[in-house]
Every structure is written in C-alpha cells, then in structure tokens.
Amino acid sequence: MAVTPSKDYKRREREQRKLNKRMAREATKDQESAAKQAAVEETEEEIQARLEAEFEAELEAERESQMVA
Q1: CA–CA separation, 45 vs 49, rounded Å?
Q2: Element (H, E) at 46
Q3: Which among 11, 23, 29, 37 is placed 20 to 30 Å from 56, CA to CA?
Q4: Closest of 11, 12, 24 to residue 32, by C-alpha
C-alpha cells in the first residue's frame, strides 16, 4: 500500500523551498553590493591617482619655470 506524504511534510517542504529561494536572492544581493562597493573603491583610487599625477605635473612645471628664470 502506498503512503502519501502528510500535509505537514508538504508544508515544511514548501517553506524550505521558499527559504532557499530567499537565501539565494539575499546572496545575490550581497554579491552585487560587494561588486558595486569594489567599483566605488576602485574609482576612488583612480581619482586619487589622477590627482597625484596632476599635482606632480604642476610641480614639475613650476620647477622648470624656476630653472628658466
């Protein structure tokens, strides 16, 4: 004789599937958030490097103008 799963078992299985889906969505959100944060940090580093390069160029130009004078 075949035994069918109880309603409680089916409910627990359904809730577990929902929980697994929710955890997968949250993990995806966390990964996207981390990727965005890394992009922001990278951008900040690029800005800092550009500012330093501009400063060095201005400093070099100032040195050259003082040598000519």
Answers
A1: 6
A2: helix 7-68
A3: 37
A4: 24
The span from the CA of 52 to the CA of 39, in Å, is 20
Q: Which residues contact 11 (CB under 8 A, 6 or more apart)?
A: none
Distance CA 11, CA 58 (A): 70
Whole-angstrom distance, CA of residue 48 vs CA of residue 41: 11
Cα–Cα dist 10/7, whole Å: 5
5's CB contacts (< 8 A; 6+ apart) are: 13
Written as six digits, the tokens of 4 are 């069918």
pTM over 0.90: no
